Amino acid sequence: MDVNLILCDGATLTDNKGINVDPESSLSIYGQSGDTGKLCIHARYHEDPDAGNNAALIGGTYDAGNISIYGGTIDLVTGFNNEERYHGAGIGGGKNGSPKQIKIYGGFIKCDTEGNDSACIGGGSGAMASSYDGEGIVIYGGELDLRSSYGAAIGNGKNCTGSTGSIGIYGGTITAESAIGAGIGGGESGRYRRRRPCRRRYYDHQPLNGSRLRRH
């Protein structure tokens, strides 16, 4: 199933469980001319293990299909308590799951997965950034403010030993921070993880991949 979601100017869609995109489906999110339409998903940690702590906020309960974002304002926060972490990505795969491909063309995206095992954009806990054979995550534009803890801000979740694959950044303004994982790359206990917290701002206007980003 292919779904188009239009965030109309001045409107706010609020949810506390997320939007499921199964592996055989696709989701495209559009804004209007003002880009003031807002999607707000703040998923608290549920004591009930069947309540969805392993699912992505936008993506899969395990693997996810294709996700494209063209505009609008998207505000994502995963839940956390003192002992348990949320395992699904902000945008991408659920626990041990990866999305097919994520493309971002524009819009304003803020994602906070601090305290949790997943990436902001990419893989859930234990999973690769993408299952796509090629550039699995591609950013052409938009403003992204991404803050993670144990997973990468863009890339793999915690405890993933696989490659991040290719991440293409062709434009946009990106703040990608992770306390333990990489800003762009691998999560804690995985490959391609920086040894120090990555707290840098990226302004990218040329075709670059995740290993050759210019830092300013």
Please, could you describe this protein's structure?
The chain is mostly beta strands and 216 residues long. Helix content is 0%, strand content 38%. It has no helices and 20 strands. The strands form three sheets. Strands 1-4-7-10-13-16-20 form a seven-stranded mixed beta sheet, with no helix packed on it. It has a seven-stranded mixed beta sheet with strand order 2-5-8-11-14-17-19, with no helix packed on it. The chain is globular, with a radius of gyration of 15 Å. 51% of the residues are buried. Residues 192-216 have low confidence and may be disordered.
Helix/strand layout:
Elements: E1 2-7, E2 12-15, E3 19-20, E4 26-31, E5 38-43, E6 58-59, E7 66-69, E8 73-78, E9 91-92, E10 102-104, E11 108-112, E12 121-122, E13 135-139, E14 143-148, E15 154-155, E16 166-169, E17 173-178, E18 184-185, E19 198-203, E20 208-209
Parallel strand pairs: 1-4, 2-5, 3-6, 4-7, 5-8, 6-9, 7-10, 8-11, 9-12, 10-13, 11-14, 12-15, 13-16, 14-17, 15-18
Antiparallel strand pairs: 16-20, 17-19
Give me some keywords for this one.
216 residues, globular, 7-stranded mixed beta sheet, 38% strand, mainly beta, single chain
Short description:
This protein has 216 residues and is mainly beta. It is built from no helices and 20 strands. The termini are far apart.
